[in-house]
């Protein structure tokens, strides 16, 4: 079991570190491949396919077994990584990132499901999920450092090729040591449900992501895609009602405990994206930090997330899962409130306190949410339930990025445009040949006020999460 768990942690690390290590390679990638206008899709293509894959692979794992599907998922991820490392154009890289995203989307729900089955008590599961959270937290710190070293010493291609030996090691260990009993009864795959779910969610996520990039939410193209998404998802629901083995059993939505947990996931993960996206902007534009220093200001989030995960696993047995989640969401409320007070005159310590508290809160919450899913779902729907939760996790990041981007632009776009000097960088490099010292001071205040609006939105999300935590059922519904 220990060897299988190590393999699971290794597979998790592949998906976890990919989200942070790529960021350090973006300047080199754009220098080599050009296509600066496509930068956002290096992330978005990965995010989009990952979101769809989480729910489909979660169901396939229930049908055909965790072992087979995790090996297939890691293999797809490694194929995408190899192709990304060999990419010769920005368009190729985006397509290959989409392939990589499919693999990454399969890894998350299946590894979480395997952990749920490896450990037979709630306390052991909590420690297992705590280790998974630690992997994500450590990856947030190590990713940028490793990525920077590889780019400086080698080339950006090795950012992707680095995955291959570790992925092969994980496949070998799972294939050799993971023993699983799978029912051999013939299963019918819900191809129609998977197709219409994919069409609907791709259309919806594409519109959300593109809207967050361009701030054009209701252009003719967006309206068409909204319509496509609505029609496809309506057909999807009708298909699921009739399917023998629905890709997403609609009975899951009648499970009150699961609904509350998924709602919590939606709000808390959106808060995280507001921190990771806008704190570096605040650090550079308001505090005048360089990119490396700005990245380091996110370190307390990752480090304290790990601390919170360890603390949470040790609290199981002394406190209920519900109580631990309540404490975690309470910390989110305090942390986001602190961040709403930030200004150009704020002490940097305030940022570290806010992000640190947020990290502890998320470390307490994230493993407990997975445990709540595991204790609420039927065994034959465990993979599907975790897949749905993982999908909501990824979906919330897209929606959160869109909402917070809209809030920031509503608060700043007209004020920044009033300077009449074209696009203004948000990296703190204000040209003194163009702007006077008084104007630079005004720019800093405008950007700071915009980010306060963003964190006011995060504060509202935290309050909703705190309230939802009180509605989690204490015991598994019958």
UniProtKB/TrEMBL annotation:
<dbReference type="InterPro" id="IPR020846">
    <property type="entry name" value="MFS_dom"/>
</dbReference>
<keyword id="KW-1003">Cell membrane</keyword>
<feature type="transmembrane region" description="Helical">
    <location>
        <begin position="156"/>
        <end position="177"/>
    </location>
</feature>
<dbReference type="GO" id="GO:0022857">
    <property type="term" value="F:transmembrane transporter activity"/>
</dbReference>
<feature type="transmembrane region" description="Helical">
    <location>
        <begin position="453"/>
        <end position="473"/>
    </location>
</feature>
<feature type="transmembrane region" description="Helical">
    <location>
        <begin position="349"/>
        <end position="373"/>
    </location>
</feature>
<feature type="transmembrane region" description="Helical">
    <location>
        <begin position="385"/>
        <end position="408"/>
    </location>
</feature>
<dbReference type="InterPro" id="IPR011701">
    <property type="entry name" value="MFS"/>
</dbReference>
<dbReference type="InterPro" id="IPR004638">
    <property type="entry name" value="EmrB-like"/>
</dbReference>
<dbReference type="Pfam" id="PF07690">
    <property type="entry name" value="MFS_1"/>
</dbReference>
<keyword id="KW-0812">Transmembrane</keyword>
<protein>
    <submittedName>
        <fullName>Actinorhodin transporter</fullName>
    </submittedName>
</protein>
<keyword id="KW-1133">Transmembrane helix</keyword>
<feature type="transmembrane region" description="Helical">
    <location>
        <begin position="221"/>
        <end position="239"/>
    </location>
</feature>
<dbReference type="GO" id="GO:0005886">
    <property type="term" value="C:plasma membrane"/>
</dbReference>
<feature type="transmembrane region" description="Helical">
    <location>
        <begin position="189"/>
        <end position="209"/>
    </location>
</feature>
<feature type="transmembrane region" description="Helical">
    <location>
        <begin position="94"/>
        <end position="119"/>
    </location>
</feature>
<feature type="transmembrane region" description="Helical">
    <location>
        <begin position="131"/>
        <end position="150"/>
    </location>
</feature>
<feature type="domain" description="Major facilitator superfamily (MFS) profile">
    <location>
        <begin position="4"/>
        <end position="477"/>
    </location>
</feature>
<feature type="transmembrane region" description="Helical">
    <location>
        <begin position="39"/>
        <end position="57"/>
    </location>
</feature>
<feature type="transmembrane region" description="Helical">
    <location>
        <begin position="260"/>
        <end position="282"/>
    </location>
</feature>
<dbReference type="InterPro" id="IPR036259">
    <property type="entry name" value="MFS_trans_sf"/>
</dbReference>
<keyword id="KW-0813">Transport</keyword>
<feature type="transmembrane region" description="Helical">
    <location>
        <begin position="324"/>
        <end position="343"/>
    </location>
</feature>
<keyword id="KW-0472">Membrane</keyword>
<feature type="transmembrane region" description="Helical">
    <location>
        <begin position="294"/>
        <end position="312"/>
    </location>
</feature>
<feature type="transmembrane region" description="Helical">
    <location>
        <begin position="69"/>
        <end position="88"/>
    </location>
</feature>
């Amino acid at each position: 079991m220990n060897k299988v768990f190590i393999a699971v942690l290794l597979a998790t690390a592949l998906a976890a570190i990919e989200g942070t290590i790529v960021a350090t390679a973006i300047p080199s990638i754009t220098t080599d491949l050009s296509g600066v206008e496509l930068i956002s899709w290096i992330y978005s293509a990965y995010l989009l396919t990952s979101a769809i894959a989480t729910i489909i692979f979660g169901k396939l794992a229930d049908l055909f077994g965790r072992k087979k599907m995790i090996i297939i998922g890691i293999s797809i991820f490694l194929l995408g990584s190899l192709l990304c490392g060999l990419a010769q154009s920005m368009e190729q890289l985006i397509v290959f990132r989409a392939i990589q995203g499919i693999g990454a989307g399969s890894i998350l729900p299946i590894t979480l499901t395997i952990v749920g089955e490896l450990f037979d008590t709630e306390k052991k599961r909590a420690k297992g999920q705590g280790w998974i959270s630690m992997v994500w937290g450590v990856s947030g710190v190590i990713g940028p450092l490793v990525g920077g070293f590889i780019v400086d010493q080698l080339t950006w291609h090795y950012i992707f090729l680095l995955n291959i030996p570790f992925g092969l090691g994980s496949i070998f260990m799972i294939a050799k040591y993971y023993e699983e009993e799978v029912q051999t009864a013939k299963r019918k795959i819900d191809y129609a449900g998977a197709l219409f779910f994919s069409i609907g969610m791709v259309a919806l996520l594409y519109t959300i992501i593109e809207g967050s990039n361009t701030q054009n939410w209701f252009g003719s193209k967006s309206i068409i895609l909204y319509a496509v998404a609505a029609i496809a998802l309506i057909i999807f629901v009708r298909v699921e009602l009739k399917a023998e083995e629905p890709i997403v059993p609609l009975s899951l939505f009648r499970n009150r405990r699961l609904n509350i947990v998924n709602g919590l996931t939606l709000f808390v993960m959106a808060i995280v994206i507001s921190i990771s996206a806008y704190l570096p902007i605040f650090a550079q534009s308001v505090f005048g930090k360089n990119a490396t220093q700005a990245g380091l200001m996110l370190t307390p989030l990752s480090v304290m997330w790990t601390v919170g995960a360890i603390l949470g696993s040790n609290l199981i047995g002394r406190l209920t899962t519900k109580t631990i989640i309540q404490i975690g969401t309470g910390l989110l409320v305090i942390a986001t409130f602190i961040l709403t007070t930030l200004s150009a005159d704020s002490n940097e310590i305030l940022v570290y306190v806010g992000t640190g508290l947020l990290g502890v809160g998320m470390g307490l919450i994230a493993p407990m949410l997975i445990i709540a899913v595991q204790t609420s779902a039927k065994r034959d729907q465990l993979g599907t339930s975790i897949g749905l939760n993982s999908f909501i996790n990824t979906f919330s990041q897209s929606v959160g990025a869109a909402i917070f981007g809209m809030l920031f632009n509503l608060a700043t776009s007209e004020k920044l445009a009033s300077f009449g000097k074209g696009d203004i960088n948000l990296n703190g490099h204000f040209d003194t040949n163009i702007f006077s010292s008084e104007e630079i001071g005004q720019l800093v205040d405008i950007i700071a006020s915009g980010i306060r609006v963003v964190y006011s939105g995060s504060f509202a999300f935290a309050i909703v999460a705190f309230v939802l935590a009180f509605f989690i059922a204490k015991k598994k519904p019958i």
